[in-house]
Amino acid sequence: MFTGIVEELGEVTAVENLGDASRFRLRGPVVTEGARHGDSIAVNGVCLTVVDHEGDEFTADVMAETLKRSSLGALAVGSRVNLERPTAVGARLGGHIVQGHVDGSGEVLARTPSEHWEIVKISLPAALSRYVVEKGSITVDGISLTVVEAGPDFFTVSLIPTTLALTTLGHKQPGDPVNLEVDVIAKYVERLLAAGQEAGA
């Protein structure tokens, strides 16, 4: 489990096409400290498994399903990525419960800067809109954010200077893809309510 509090801004150093999968090599001095084969690291919000690591770099295999559902397929050598290790038991939950299981991709639609923060508007797939509410939580490229406005096919988030400086959202421009993970609690509630209605039918 992750919390959506990005630990560092890493970089893709190599991409290998394996046909029905891709192998990424990524640099991240913080997240590779003490890393072992089989450990999990969230890359732009996608939970990946460490295949190998050497120095401050690690490799991870990404299967076709993940490439289809996320924006990882758009990564190239030199791309910056948000990196986070799983939360340790007993640690503070600084963001919200994030599984690293991306629900879909959105696209940056607009950026509106102000003196001390910036509003970013992001497209929202129709199938996910019912899980997104104003002042609720959403994960964008692995970043735990609070929804400012929730529209039928978009939402907005307000980014503070720290988020702009230390994550990929400081560099994303209109047209750029982002990974989205909605609040898992909303999905469980929906499933339980549907099961209860079927039982009572």
UniProtKB/TrEMBL annotation:
EC number in record: 2.5.1.9
Keyword tags: Repeat, Riboflavin biosynthesis, Transferase
Matching PROSITE patterns: LUMAZINE_BIND
Domain Lumazine-binding: 1-96, 97-193
Reactions catalysed: 2 6,7-dimethyl-8-(1-D-ribityl)lumazine + H(+) = 5-amino-6-(D-ribitylamino)uracil + riboflavin
Lumazine-binding repeats: 1-96, 97-193
Pathway the protein contributes to: Cofactor biosynthesis; riboflavin biosynthesis; riboflavin from 2-hydroxy-3-oxobutyl phosphate and 5-amino-6-(D-ribitylamino)uracil: step 2/2
Repeat as UniProt keyword: yes
Gene Ontology MF, one: riboflavin synthase activity
InterPro entries linked: ATP_synth_asu-like_sf (IPR023366), Lumazine-bd (IPR001783), Lumazine-bd_dom (IPR026017), Riboflavin_synthase-like_b-brl (IPR017938)
Top EC class of this enzyme: transferase
GO terms (BP aspect): riboflavin biosynthetic process
Gene3D superfamilies attached to this UniProt entry: 2.40.30.20
SUBUNIT field: Homotrimer.
Function: Catalyzes the dismutation of two molecules of 6,7-dimethyl-8-ribityllumazine, resulting in the formation of riboflavin and 5-amino-6-(D-ribitylamino)uracil.
Alphabetical list of PANTHER family matching this protein: RIBOFLAVIN SYNTHASE (PTHR21098:SF12), RIBOFLAVIN SYNTHASE ALPHA CHAIN (PTHR21098)
Name this polypeptide is given: Riboflavin synthase
Organism the protein comes from: Streptomyces bauhiniae
